[in-house]
Amino acid sequence: MQEKVEAQNILSMNSIEVLYDNVLLAIKGVSVQVPKGEMIALLGSNGAGKSTTLKAISGLLKAERGRISRGEIKFEGTDITEMLAQKRVEMGICHVIEGRRVFEHLTPDENLTAAAPMGMSKATLNAEKEKIYSFFPRLAERKNSQAGYLSGGEQQMLAIGRALVTQPSLLMLDEPSLGLAPFLVEEIFGIIKQINQEQGLSVLLVEQNALAALEIVSEGYLIENGRVVMHGAADALKANSDIQEFYLGGGEGTNFHEVKHYSRRKRWLS
Amino acid sequence: MDWVFLSELAINGVLTGLLYSLFAIGLVLIYKASSVPNLAQGGLTMVGAYVVLALSHDAGLPLWLAIPLAALIMFGLGFGIERVALRRLAGRPVVMILMLTLGLDIFLRGTTLAIWGGTSRSMELGVSYDPLFLGDIFISRIHLVGAGVALALFVAFMLFFRTRTGIKLRAIADDYMASWSVGISVERGVGLSWALASVVAVAAGVIWGEIQGVDQALSLLLLKGLTVAVLGGLDSILGAVIAGIILGVVENVGADFLDPLVGGGSRELIVAAVLILTVMIRPHGLFGRHDIERV
Ligand SMILES: Nc1ncnc2c1ncn2[C@@H]1O[C@H](COP(=O)(O)OP(=O)(O)O)[C@@H](O)[C@H]1O
Ligand SMILES: [Mg+2]
């Protein structure tokens, strides 16, 4: 039974602790499972440890003088805890980092080329690009302009497209909705959901925008102060009173209620 | 006004300037990947020239074989520098990397002095010193050859930066973290840019070694090379070529006017003025990229 569960999880992260600069304990025993083909959300306020969790999985901690001090991460059954970031991308993990970070002085088309594995044939790369342009037609229109001058939404689309070129089986997105208008968030989330359903791409989505995230994922984890404090099906989380109050804007809460929790709410949303 | 004489000064200024560009292209390659002006580029150029001499004069290989072989050796040396020294500095302040390149320059100068001594040796490329006349204008053949090499390298790098590997290098120059996130090996990219800059150092070492002899003074080319690179914008190869031409002409023509007035030595003053004025008035140089303001 245990083994069957293992086999169904594309990613299994067990009791991971991360230290920055050898002193700052940023996450304290986080366990997250991503079942194959599912979309999972990591929710939590600023500084909770969401990005650190993703960096532990993608291997980008090293670039920020961070390291995993305890626990193990398995991807498709292989222990990747100590693996180089580059190897993990080759295995099929791609991390769309916070803040879009497109290659500003390259064109969108060159951004996609830059992410192509050295071994990928030109024909395959062109096919990948066509597919990405069909998901994001706005990118196709601007593919030869400078990426630094794209709008925020277009840059987010490009960052996602650039990750797709690596042909991941697990896509991790760090706050893709940040600073984007609601209609753009809806468009981008819709496309991610579409890719997830059509191609079975597993997705780990980090969001502060819980309302939008819980609409498209099947499960969610709530992280606070470097620990998982809640885990459940998306519907159950949506119905949970704490989550409703702090993330989904309450609704039925009386004024008294809001005042009472104001300081806590402020902390969560800051 | 003697127009023939003035055009001769200008044309030879262009040619000399392109030889500065030849040197500066190496600086630009490393700046793009590591965000530091490589203070060891002069040392590398000198080592490149000595390796050619060792292979041709000492080991007896013909020049057509010795030069590509030296380029190959220097290519390996460039990769080695990244592997042994630079990789440990990843994530440290850029000024540390700058100091490392300074240390490397001193090391390279000391090593060449220990192995080959201080006496000047000649490159003996076999380029004729017979005067070449373009109409009434006298042109130096070796300068013409060197300018051709500089332009050829310029074209080669422009093409290279359109290939997949070249695009990855430009991506690395833009954002290390984002590069890692899509599986680009930043370390190998930085190593490659050092390797390519070391090959450029061989080209510059051969041409400049032919012109002024092979000795420790070759490493002092760094000063003019840096001036050209800064004027061009530090991260633009096109900038390095154009800035080289500008500096060459301004220096050649300017010195002709100023030397009689100040009694010689005005070339250095002109180079200094160009460097200082660029930094003060246009810190991004002629073609340096500005960081794009996000809206
Ligand atoms: N590079 C870093 N160096 C030191 N501390 C960091 C670094 N990145 C994040 N932290 C700390 O780790 C904690 C978790 O941060 P992070 O994972 O970025 O949270 P989130 O993504 O949920 O906002 C915070 O206290 C933050 O200050
Ligand atoms: Mg974050």
Automatic annotation (TrEMBL), chain A:
The keyword rRNA-binding is assigned to this record: no
Molecular-function annotations in GO: ATP binding
InterPro entries found in the cross-reference section: AAA+_ATPase (IPR003593), ABC_transporter-like_ATP-bd (IPR003439), ABC_transporter-like_CS (IPR017871), BCAA_Transport_ATP-bd_LivF (IPR052156), P-loop_NTPase (IPR027417)
Domain of life: Bacteria
Keyword Transmembrane helix: no
Keywords assigned: Amino-acid transport, ATP-binding, Nucleotide-binding, Transport
ABC transporter domain sequence ranges: 5-250
Pfam family, one: ABC_tran
Similarity field: Belongs to the ABC transporter superfamily.
The name this protein goes by in its record: ABC transporter ATP-binding protein
The organism of origin for this protein: Ruegeria aquimaris
From TrEMBL, chain B:
Keyword presence, Transmembrane: yes
TM annotation in the entry: 12-31, 61-81, 93-117, 137-161, 226-249
CDD domains reported in the protein's UniProt record: TM_PBP1_LivH_like (cd06582)
Membrane topology: Multi-pass membrane protein
Keywords: Amino-acid transport, Cell membrane, Membrane, Transmembrane, Transmembrane helix, Transport
Compartments (UniProt record): Cell membrane
Organism superkingdom: Bacteria
PANTHER family, per the entry: ABC TRANSPORTER PERMEASE PROTEIN, BRANCHED-CHAIN AMINO ACID TRANSPORT SYSTEM PERMEASE PROTEIN LIVH
Family listed: Belongs to the binding-protein-dependent transport system permease family. LivHM subfamily.
Protein name (record): Branched-chain amino acid ABC transporter permease
Organism of origin: Ruegeria aquimaris
Source lineage: Bacteria, Pseudomonadati, Pseudomonadota, Alphaproteobacteria, Rhodobacterales
